[in-house]
Design a protein that fits this description.
Structural class: alpha+beta
Shape: globular
Number of strands: 20
Largest sheet: 7 strands, antiparallel
Low-confidence stretches: 24-62, 76-94, 262-269, 373-385
Strand order of the largest sheet: 2-3-14-13-15-11-12
Mean pLDDT: 79
Number of helices: 10
Radius of gyration: 22 Å
Order of helices and strands: HHHEEEHEHEEEEEHEEEHHEEHEEEEEEH
Helix content: 25-40%
Distance between the termini: 10 Å
Length: 399
């Protein structure tokens, strides 16, 4: 075949593939990477993120979070450098975590459902208080739920921080919320992190509450030993670590969780305040059907929001069976289809009349179902096969 003809064929097929993918699937980034250019996932994500800047006010002025709403469970000097010891209290049997079969009905549509709520919560003093935020229920979570590193792949290794908007757009999330804790100075992801079957890091057995899904679709909630995390016969495909196990088997578990969080936590004043203070909150758990439930509460530390006691009670009212608490305060950001949907607590740098989303660590993502049986992680296998066939044609032309 003449040189100019080959070039023309390549151009035509490339344009056809691009148009086909963009018009048949919203998750263009997911198909683009493995099937067409085969560029590294890291490079592709960075390209996409470079086109998704922070909110802009005025000409050339980029608004960023001032990170004024701090809610840290540990002092900066202590940052998670604790070791498991024998301080766990045995209250429910002799197990450190709970397991539950995940919802697996793939015929249920849509894959997730998000609702904004304004509700009333009756406090321990019998006072009614307003509670407002978002709840997302995720069907078939083995295929439709992911833990995502900040800014995409290698975010934890590079100690990167990113807004939930940027990270969620790169992964194609319909709903997303901030997740794991991070070093406020180092930017390091804290605790266990497993995303889409890839173990990013393990917490070395540090005893804090975890939420994860194993390869067979089992939801795991609670405390994990290092061996639990490193298990290979039925590995975790998603895993994130929080602080305080809020709800265990349909009961409030805050007090027991405080007692089991090892290394003499009562020596650290911030931990009690962390539990008791009013603030914005985030939790991940599951309901009786095995659907993953994400709950976000708006607030402002010491002014409005929920204590963890109140948060646990509210989760029970939503039908949550097991749940853990995730990063709260100014980190709390809930994103729907690439747009911030809640009211972040942090003020913007240089303009306190505006509120800005903070750059955070990992996020939790509700997305279209992935094909977990192959490496082609796209919205549907039929589309993936079509693209693969087009790529075969392109390779034949290049020969």
């Amino acid at each position: 075949m003449a040189g100019y003809q080959k070039t023309l064929y390549i151009l035509v097929v490339s344009v056809f593939i691009t148009v086909f993918v963009m018009t048949t699937n919203n998750n263009f980034n997911a198909i683009l990477k493995p099937a067409i250019n085969r560029v590294s996932r890291r490079s592709a994500d960075r390209f996409l993120l470079s086109n998704k800047d922070a909110p802009i006010k005025g000409e050339g002025e980029i608004l960023r979070s001032s990170e004024n709403d701090s809610l840290l469970p540990f002092s900066q000097s202590e940052e998670w450098h604790r070791h498991v010891n024998g301080c766990r209290t045995v209250k429910i049997g002799d197990t450190a975590h709970e397991t539950f079969p995940a919802h697996k009905n793939s015929s249920v549509a849509p894959s997730s459902n998000t609702k904004y709520f304004v509700d009333k919560l009756l406090t321990s003093r019998r006072h009614a208080k307003d509670v407002y935020g978002h709840r997302t229920v995720i069907n078939n979570p083995l295929r439709s739920f992911s833990v995502v590193e900040p800014g995409g792949p290698n975010g934890c290794v590079e100690r990167r921080r990113s807004t939930v908007v940027k990270t969620s757009r790169a992964r194609g999330c319909h709903a997303a919320v901030n997740a794991g804790f991070f070093g406020s100075e180092s930017g390091a992801c804290m605790g266990n992190v497993v995303t889409d079957g890839k173990r990013i890091q393990d917490g070395g057995g540090i005893k804090n509450a975890n939420f994860g899904i194993r390869k067979d679709g089992t939801i795991v909630v609670g405390y994990l030993s290092e061996m639990d995390v490193l298990r290979e016969d039925n590995p975790f495909v998603q895993l994130v670590t929080g602080v305080i196990w809020l709800v265990r088997n349909g009961s409030v578990y805050v007090n027991e969780s405080k007692a089991q969080d090892c290394a003499g936590l009562q020596e650290y004043g911030p931990m009690d305040k962390f539990v008791d203070v009013l603030s914005a909150r985030v939790a991940v758990g599951h309901d009786v059907e095995g659907r993953v439930v994400l709950v976000q509460i708006d607030g402002n530390t010491e002014e409005r929001g929920l204590s963890l006691w109140e948060f646990a009670e509210f989760l029970l009212s939503l039908g949550v069976v097991n749940a853990i608490n995730l990063d709260g305060g100014g980190s709390v950001t809930f994103v729907l289809d690439g747009t911030v949907a809640n009211y972040p607590a942090d003020h913007c740098i240089g303009n306190r009349s505006w509120h800005c989303a903070r750059e955070v660590s990992t996020i939790l993502c509700a997305h279209d179902p992935d094909d977990v049986t192959s490496s082609c992680r796209v919205v549907n296998t039929h589309t993936c096969l079509k693209v693969a066939m087009l790529c075969v044609i392109l390779r034949w032309i290049l020969q």
